[in-house]
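User: quick one - fold this with coproporphyrinogen I bound?
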Amino acid sequence: MTTPSSSNLVRAARRQPVDHTPVWFMRQAGRSLPEYRKVREGTAMLEACRTPDLVTEITLQPVRRHGVDAAIFFSDIVVPLAAVGVDLDIVPGTGPVVAQPVRSRADLDRLPPLTPDLVPDITESVRQIVGELGEIPLIGFAGAPFTLASYLVEGGPSRNHEHTKALMHGDPQLWSDLCERLAAISGAFLRVQVEAGASAVQLFDSWVGALPLADYERFVAPHSRATFAHLDGLDAPKIHFGVGTGELLPAMGAVGADVVGVDYRVSLTDALARLDGSYAVQGNLDPALLFAPWEALEAEVRRIVEEGRAAPGHIFNLGHGVLPTTDPEVLTRVVDLVHEISAR
Ligand code: 1CP
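Assistant: Sure. Structure tokens for the protein plus coproporphyrinogen I:
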């Protein structure tokens, strides 16, 4: 009998043999789905993330529709920050906006630890989802310290991360103390999800590709490692992903990941050479190619599945999230194609 922990997704993550290449999509739940837009009507994003029946429905929608090999928990990387009391909002069309940016030592007082009693709804949502999913695994997730810090320090989405980099280099001790708190918060958020039944986790360091390797090693890696260490003793493989991280792939694997996410700027073949066979990989179709004619898209999917055969484990995904205007029928067709051409 298949269980979530013996599913193709978990097996690929553990570099074990699979029946077919497992596939899921970052941001598979969300605005590309009419059924998502319908149930979200009239509910703000952060409120939706804290309402178990809504979280359950939205998490399951892409599984029902596309037949993907995993669900990803419907939430946001800033949910645990809001849960510890940070005054922030997710503004439609913009993203997370923080009322008072974190830039001084006194600001750290606004980042107390995340204890499970602050997020009973997360436990309830995960349990409910896992009950509905049966043999399909649920991926829990959190934001990595650098990416969370970038929202807190900048006050919102940022192109250049100038305040973040200025703080990192200008006051390394404050930076380190900030990231230590964020690692504890994110680590606790991951742990709550796994203890409630998530079968794997993904740590998103979406914007860390903005850093050179030396800065990554010095200012980021210890804190991402500390985040993953919160899962010690639990049996859930760890996926680590960021955008534009071609130069950082081995360093990102080394913080404790089982699977390294690869964006579309680096081929899986090149990524595998850089990773030296030590990790499974996830990726890496350019989300913009979902808008190309089917023949062109099909050729790319085939190429990626083919390149993934050389990996010790391959989870098919996009190189970043589904764009909101994507035709969801194309996503379903990609799932079917990946399953068909990778069947063993
Ligand atoms: O009202 C809405 O529908 C808001 C759009 C939206 C959605 C659907 C946001 C705001 N977040 C989410 C859900 C979400 N966020 C998921 C859902 C699960 C799934 O994949 O199906 C996940 C995994 C996230 C994680 C997240 N939030 C990341 C990491 C992933 C990535 O895309 O790199 C990041 C960077 C965020 C911040 C965020 N939240 C929302 C937006 C628009 C953004 C990005 C803003 C920016 O450009 O900085």
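One thing worth noting: The pocket of coproporphyrinogen I is lined by residues 26-31, 45, 72, 74, 76-77, 90, 92, 95-96, 141, 157, 204, 206, 321 (CB under 6 Å).
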